[in-house]
UniProtKB/TrEMBL annotation:
Lineage: Eukaryota, Metazoa, Chordata, Craniata, Vertebrata
Alphabetized UniProt keyword annotations: ATP-binding, Kinase, Nucleotide-binding, Serine/threonine-protein kinase, Transferase
Pfam families recorded: Alpha_kinase
GO molecular function: ATP binding; protein serine/threonine kinase activity
InterPro entries in the record: a-kinase_dom (IPR004166), Alpha-type_PK (IPR051852), Kinase-like_dom_sf (IPR011009)
Keyword Kinase attributed: yes
Protein name: Alpha-type protein kinase domain-containing protein
Sequence ranges assigned to domain Alpha-type protein kinase in this UniProt record: 1-91
Keyword Iron-sulfur: no
SUPFAM superfamilies in UniProt: Protein kinase-like (PK-like) (SSF56112)
Length: 91
């Protein structure tokens, strides 16, 4: 349940895994999102310096996943457009 002080709920895009027989390769694909794209953190845990509530929320979410799972999981590589619509992550 999100706090009432956060006026939106980010969503994650579905990711699909496809195998191309002719190339012998696996591909991960997802819906193309438009708008101003922003990367909030990366796989190394490097973060942006937050300048608004959306950015603060994304960084807090990464931290929350670590705390909630008692250090077992950490969701990183959060990215998306800044119109408070889809956010995505690399599986």
């Amino acid at each position: 349940m999100r706090p009432k002080t956060i006026p939106y709920s980010p969503r994650f895009l579905e990711v699909f895994l496809l195998y191309c027989h002719s190339a012998g390769q696996w591909f991960a694909i997802e819906e193309c999102i438009t708008g101003e794209f922003r990367k909030f953190n990366n796989n190394n845990g490097d973060e942006i310096v937050p300048t608004n509530l959306l950015e603060e929320t994304m960084l807090a979410f990464s931290h929350w996943t670590y705390e909630y799972t008692r250090g077992e999981l950490l969701v990183l590589d959060l990215q998306g457009n800044t119109d408070i619509q889809p956010l995505t992550f690399n599986p």
